[in-house]
Design goal:
Elements (H helix, E strand, L loop, with lengths): L1 E6 L5 H25 L4 H13 L2 H26 L7 H19 L8 H26 L3 H20 L24 E3 L4 E2 L1 H18 L1 H11 L1 H6 L4 H28 L10 H11 L4 H25 L3 H23 E6 L2
Antiparallel strand pairs: 1-4, 2-3
Helix pairs in contact: 1-13, 2-3, 2-12, 3-7, 3-10, 3-11, 3-12, 4-5, 4-6, 4-10, 4-11, 5-6, 5-10, 7-8, 7-12, 8-10, 11-12
């Protein structure tokens, strides 16, 4: 006899919304206690977070720009996890996409200008897709655990990038591991320059809509869902489970690769080893919090981007150390992950 968690067959939408509100309330209370114990004016800290995130058009634009790579890596993880293929390599796939697009730019040069941009995104998607598909192929053909391969491939691509940035792609005028600055004619166009919001955000939104349609309205989405629910039953139904695993990893890697293209040509304007600040790993958290719903990924990613901007404003306004900001992030994630578990399960009394 006792309490136990029972998986819900179909999560209730109202309970999902309520669990998110409870997570917000609980994280707010604990954060307030933490700030108060650090001697910080709680109201001033929360006000600074809001002002830094959505206080004006400039702040809002910066938050949306910051959320762009989060949207794409969150979508990448969503596609793979729906088939219960555990892609932990979105970080490496992001770099693969960035390197593929930069290679194309280095070959063609800036002569094509804006006409080169669509080809850069194709190159980034293909590069990330091939890198993700490699892990999917190893899983399907040789039963190699994709968690291990994707994690190790993250390091392989970084070492390869480091080699290229001290060799053929090195900026000869700099002591840092970075490429030469990309010609301005190939930068992603700005939507609103003062807020550093570029067209990459619109591309991320389009990607979210496309992923939603594919996952919910196509035969491929049906196969992915079937494999995720029960791979053995899907195989009896005639679905090629191995081929599906390779496909979702390729699509997942391609989406992460698009984030790499955006970081190189829309943010950093050069190829560097730090174009990603853990975006691939954060995408895992975003996908889980969004309950593998592509449209919810957009919402959660924007919240992440907003918090990053708001946290900077809070540090400047109140003088709290950066460690407090990291603690607030961890507290918020803990409560939201708890909410995600509660949304998928219910507590029942087991009388046996």
């Amino acid at each position: 006899m006792g309490l136990r968690l029972e998986t819900r067959l179909a999560p209730n939408a109202r309970w999902q919304a309520l669990s998110v509100l409870l997570a917000l309330l609980a994280s707010g209370i604990v954060t307030a206690i933490l700030l108060k114990s650090a001697g910080t004016d709680v109201w001033a800290a929360f006000t600074a977070i809001y002002d830094g995130a959505f206080g004006d058009l400039r702040a809002t634009s910066k938050s949306l720009a910051k959320s762009t790579p989060f949207i794409l890596t969150g979508l990448a993880i969503t596609v793979a996890f729906r088939a219960k293929v555990w892609n932990i390599g979105a970080e490496g796939q992001l770099f693969a996409g960035a390197m593929s697009s930069y290679w194309l730019y280095s070959v063609t040069g800036p002569a094509m200008g804006m006409f080169l941009l669509p080809l850069l995104f194709v190159a980034g998607f293909v590069g990330g897709g091939l890198y993700g598909g490699l892990a999917g192929y190893l899983r399907s053909a040789f039963r190699v655990n994709e968690v291990l391969t994707t994690v190790m491939l993250n390091y392989v691509i970084l070492y390869l990038l480091s080699f290229l940035l001290v060799g053929p792609w090195r900026d000869q005028s700099s002591f840092y591991q970075q490429s030469s600055r990309i010609d301005r004619s190939v930068w992603l166009p700005d939507i609103w320059a003062p807020g550093k919001l570029h067209v990459g955000f619109l591309i991320a939104l389009v990607a979210a809509v496309v992923v939603y349609i594919i996952m919910s309205r196509s035969w491929f989405g049906y196969e992915v869902k079937a494999v995720g629910l029960n791979a053995r039953a899907a195989r009896f139904k005639g679905i090629n489970v191995e081929r599906t695993a390779v496909a979702v990893m390729a699509i997942s890697g391609g989406l992460a690769g698009l984030a790499g293209v955006i970081q190189v040509f829309g943010v950093n304007h050069r190829l560097e080893t730090d174009i990603s600040l853990g975006f691939g790993y954060t995408g895992i958290i975003i996908a889980v919090l969004a309950m593998l719903n592509p449209m919810w990924v957009v919402f959660v990613a924007i919240l992440f981007g907003a918090f990053e901007n708001g946290a900077i404003k809070m540090q400047v306004a109140t003088g709290v150390p950066s460690a407090i900001t990291s603690a607030i992030e961890a507290i918020t994630l803990l409560f939201f992950l708890t909410a995600a578990v509660l949304a998928r399960h219910r507590i029942v009394w087991d009388s046996k």
